[in-house]
Amino acid sequence: MYATTDTQATSPAARGGRSRWLALYTLCAGMLMIVLDVTVVNVALPAIQDNLGFTSSSLAWVVNAYLIAFGGLLLLAGRLGDLLGRRNVFTAGLIVFTAASVLCGLAQTQEMLVIARFIQGVGGALTSAVILGMIVTLFPEPREQAKAIGVYAFVASAGGSIGLLAGGVLTQAISWHWIFFVNLPLGVLTVVLALKLIEKDKGLGIGKGTDVPGAVLITGALMVGVFTIVKPAAELGWTAPRTLTLAAVTLVLLAAFVAREATAANPLVPLRIFRSRTLTGANLIQALSSSGMFGIFFLGSLYLQRVLGYDALEIGLAFLPTTVVMGLLSVKYSEKLVMRFGPRRPLIVGLSLIAVGLALFTQAPVGGNYFIHVLPVLALLGLGGGICFPALMGLSMSDVKPEDAGLASGLIGTMGEVGAALGLAILATLSATRTAASTKPALEALTSGYHFSFAVAAAIVAASVVVAITVMRPAKQPAESTDRELCLEAA
User: Where is this chain primarily localised (predicted)?
Assistant: First the structure.
């Protein structure tokens, strides 16, 4: 009894709100590094191609090498956080990511850059997979947890827009190498702060979940699956023999993994967690909404560049309203909305606003005006994202046991990553197919392809609204939950 009290008194949570919020900002700094890296690199791809002599097809590996490692390891990294300690996995991931960033910046050959990007993906997975689990542990009280998740959701969802701007500035003002070098001081500072501000957790111990076959099967399935989406499916088509073969391999590995987890004494991913209707629904919504949102940020950037003639810096500035609106809502108002209405209603409203915004984008013409045809869309996306994503993150962790928090955190991240990759591949393919089939002038044909993909993206997000309405259980009033918790504590 006294030993437990003494331990709690020395923890960040017990030392006062300031320590916990500083720990949260440290976790979000780590997440921001990971999120920024994706869009920063996208902006710098033309400069990287010119400098290192990549062909158009080989240049894709600068992105794909990262995505395959990142998407493939998220689920495993989340479970490792439960077993080995989440702070240990978080800091190890930061060290790997930062070191790999330096290697990327120093790269003088194509091979060195691609290998370093793969290692970066490993570090990114280790870092980001455990963050949400650490946040719900740091902030067990519902109101503070909702506010903390709002900050995290803003960084995770809106950081990409900042990356567009930062990538344009660094690439044009200095060189593409510096989009990676800037991670060195940020990474070192974040590691130091993490060791100082975040309490070291012991973890369940490796003996509680040593499931090497399961780890190999799920990591292999996710890596092959992501590779299938970003490479043969995008380049050869969804019905190409190579695409179908790799898709079949992915399904076989997934089936073998499920069979393994159902019979293993200490499964890597206990299948019991999927009995939670809330967790399963939240992950399905994450996959669907990420498919629509991520693909549109990519295709929306192409519309601004190829149709309206924007350069990299102008594209970054164009997307800033989404970041500002999303940040204002996530940080300042999301907690109030969740506490007032519960997480389900803000989730449904936010997703609906995103679907409306995507549908509105289908009206952007060849000679479009930013303030008339683009800004309202980006404002709706920011408004919807700022309302729904914090609620979704909270729901994804609301029905999870403490010992499974890292796994649940890695799972929601995996669904977002796979959904984004799948959505991008599908929407980009549909856009290119519609453009190629059009008999209109070049810019009109290009725009019609984007319009078709915008409409499909809106339909995908609308499907996530249906899931939120039909699958997610109506949330009880937060005040009632808090009162019940207080009664239990008093008892």
Answer: membrane
Q: Which of 244, 267, 290 is the last residue of a domain?
A: 267
Handedness of CA 133, 137, 138, 143 (dihedral sign): positive
Tell me the one-letter amino acid at 110.
Answer: Q
Task: Supply the range of the domain harboring residue 373.
Answer: 15-209+268-484
**Which secondary structure element, helix H or strand E, spans residue 196, and what is its range?**
helix 183-197
pLDDT for res 490: 42
pLDDT class of 210 with cuts at 50, 70, 90: low
pTM: 0.77
351 & 229 share domain: no
Same domain, 147 and 166: yes
Residues 200 and 171 in one domain: yes
486 burial type by CB count under 10 A (0-12 exposed, 13-18 middle, 19+ buried): exposed
The domain that holds 412 is classified in CATH as 1.20.1250.20
Residues 228 and 157 grouped into a single domain = no
d(CA 273, CA 400): 7
Token pair of 105, please? 């910046």
Which residue from 96, 94, 117 is spatially nearest to 106, judged by alpha carbons? Answer: 117
- Whole-number mean pLDDT of the chain? 81
In a domain, 405, yes or no: yes
Residues 360 and 416 in one domain: yes
Does some domain include residue 5? Answer: no
pLDDT in tens, 409-461: 888 888 887 787 778 778 887 888 888 888 888 899 999 999 999 999 999 99
Shared-domain flag, residues 128 and 40: yes
Q: Contact 315/45 with Cβ under 8 angstroms?
A: no
At CA 303, angle to CA 302 and CA 309, rounded to 5? 90
DSSP 389-427: HHHHHHHHHHT--GGGHHHHHHHHHHHHHHHHHHHHHHH
The answer to whether 76 and 27 have CB atoms below 8 angstroms apart is: no
Q: How far is CA 80 from CA 73, 129, 399, in A?
A: 10, 9, 20
Query: Contact at 8 Å (CB) between 256 and 217?
Result: yes
Contact 323, 32 (CB under 8 A): no
Q: Give the pLDDT of residue 371.
A: 93
With a CB cutoff of 8 Å and minimum separation 6, the contacts of 284 are 415, 464, 467, 471
Residues listed for the chain: 491
* Each residue's pLDDT tens digit, 86-120: 899 999 999 999 999 999 999 999 889 989 999 99
Q: How many domains does the chain have?
A: 2
110 and 144 both lie in a single domain: yes
